[in-house]
């Protein structure tokens, strides 16, 4: 029998992969669209309060660890105040608070919010970290000159996007971002370059003239904290020391400006692009990632203010011991209008920030020379900037949207025939002309809120349409893929008349949708989205519906039983959805499949004949189910890593011993396994040396790095190129298990190796269990290419989906991909290289799926089913989870909720796409050893 999937299956798998990959983009079209538009009229600030501004960004700095006294209790001899200079500014001459960031809490979107005043759509983080030219305005572009110093990952973003020659940058080499070395040198380098710049100005008249112009911005990007936090975590002594270095840099920077300019006409802003979770990562909505410090001082800044009633402090900031002073919080984009107001430049055209001083009931940051009048005019400017945003987007909708419904609060036509937005501006201008400053500010605040709500109305205008398309498409995919469970011979086409009606409806729906999208100038992705539901439903109505009805009518299950089974499927899928936020549900799942399922559903004869197998299956499931219960936050544990290596060696030794006692022993196979075991031992030795060296802050020895790479590459490719003939499926599976064991020694931080071992053993037992409780489809002869659906196939498909999820999240945090630790990567890549580091983490993720793929392919063969037959059943079920996650995505609420909702949808979509790939890979990888299983008459015995 041919092992390759037939054309029907291959076409289905290919189409399914394309469909799911394409529809991942739908979450961004629906919930997160780019806010960038062009054509707005610029609005300038009042005359600047200062001549120049210094922006200092401590990349990856948490607010609590900067402000809290005794914030590092576990660090020996830690100072009471870790940043005395910045704290003294907050207490005596500046303003402080928390700058709240949005997800993704990455460097690019964080800096865009600070410097551009806008929040990039979430998908923008996929554009990379480095030299991406930006297509939005920024305070740098509105300055007379900007001098920036710091990381090559950040500075080019703004230099290349600005007016040529306006932004000058000095960056260190990428090789300097070595995670195994002292990252504070990156920060001191920035200070040295600033000092050199001022020194050069004494000999360069042009440079000196540029530096002494008004409206100049200096940007100091301090990457050390981010690098140190990744390497040692934010509660470490190293992170504490780096905060002290940053504090000294702030002090020395202010001294340099005072010495060079000889005046006090400089404003200073200190903040961070994102925080750092306690495991040393960022990217998601963890509150420690979204709360960053903000300290503002210098010319034009209102100094300390006694706290108000109600108090501005909460449980988060009370440990700072600053309760006597007002905590002034902002959203991250609000920093942009604050900086623009301080030096009197035009606000960036794309800014959606709100100047903290516009609200007359709130104490802001500015102490303008113009007093209340200047604040009222700043509030008007803020409203005008946002109204320009709204106007441009509104006019685009009017021009291209059929049956457009305008936002009433701004577009209502009064008796004068003038839109409300224009009338509101006229009222504010009249109040300013009458010197009614507070009233003007209050009206400006109301208009600002209306503008922000109007912008949201326009940005979400198409949401219902996209949701409808997505839901219809996913349900259509489930209907279309259900045809695959019906033998091709049973798929009878509809009558000619019915087919013509269906074709006509499909064509009209497709063409009508495309015309509407063209008129509305919708994104190009809309044109693609609508293709899929039209095709899926057309195929189901023409070919699938009659066949599905026939299969259901011939089923031995009653209608009530079919409904009950359907409800169980829904419960199972929604339980897996809930497990993304409640990890213990995965453990409950192992109890159900490992204990309750055998005890409650197995026939007594099967249970009595296979009690040893049932006992092993139960114990294995319970052991594997322990891992989702373990704490997500892990510390690097060399003994635990080595324990995983020992268990993997034990499994390899036991299999070698058992297979060596079997008749027909193959010495070449035994030799290959011994060689892999030797590689594991060598890896354990090398990694032990590397971990001790890195923990001792001695860097990564070059021989260790070279050896680790060589061993990892050799072990990983060995099972794919080896010509050893495996006598059984288990032999081939163990070959892959031992090969990827090297990966789990080299790249584990704690219990991952133990989980990998338990997971593999559980899968091997699953094959035996399914073969024991179910007779092959063709018990009286060779397996047939024609797959006949059985009700029990749904259970097996659900088991498969369960293992797909557990393989990914068995030891990780289901809330975010950021739960994957970076410490193990430093054993191979000590210098910052995001793509290579990500590749290693992905490789570690893939390893359990290789085992799952070959195990699932073996299970198909043991049950004498055609390739992919069980997976085809899973295809009809999987998008129950995907659709649920899509509808649950939110762009409001806490940043944690937003980040989780995005992660959930993307992860489950990719996992389901991935499951199709691993099934194909499993059939390919096991081709040689599965043919005998498929051709056997009696159920074979796997050693």
TrEMBL record:
Q: Which residues cross the membrane?
A: 12-34, 464-489, 501-520, 585-602, 638-658, 678-696, 702-721, 733-749, 794-815, 835-856, 868-890, 902-931
Q: Which GO terms describe its molecular function?
A: mannose-ethanolamine phosphotransferase activity
Q: What is its EC number?
A: 2.-.-.-
Which pathway is this protein engaged in?
Glycolipid biosynthesis; glycosylphosphatidylinositol-anchor biosynthesis
Keyword Transmembrane helix applies: yes
Residues in domain GPI ethanolamine phosphate transferase 1 C-terminal? 453-894
Locations listed in the record: Endoplasmic reticulum membrane
What UniProt keywords apply to this chain's record, in alphabetical order? Cell wall biogenesis/degradation, Endoplasmic reticulum, Glycoprotein, GPI-anchor biosynthesis, Membrane, Transferase, Transmembrane, Transmembrane helix
Pfam families referenced in this protein's UniProt entry, alphabetically: Phosphodiest, PigN
What name does this protein carry?
GPI ethanolamine phosphate transferase 1
Species of provenance: Paxillus rubicundulus Ve08.2h10
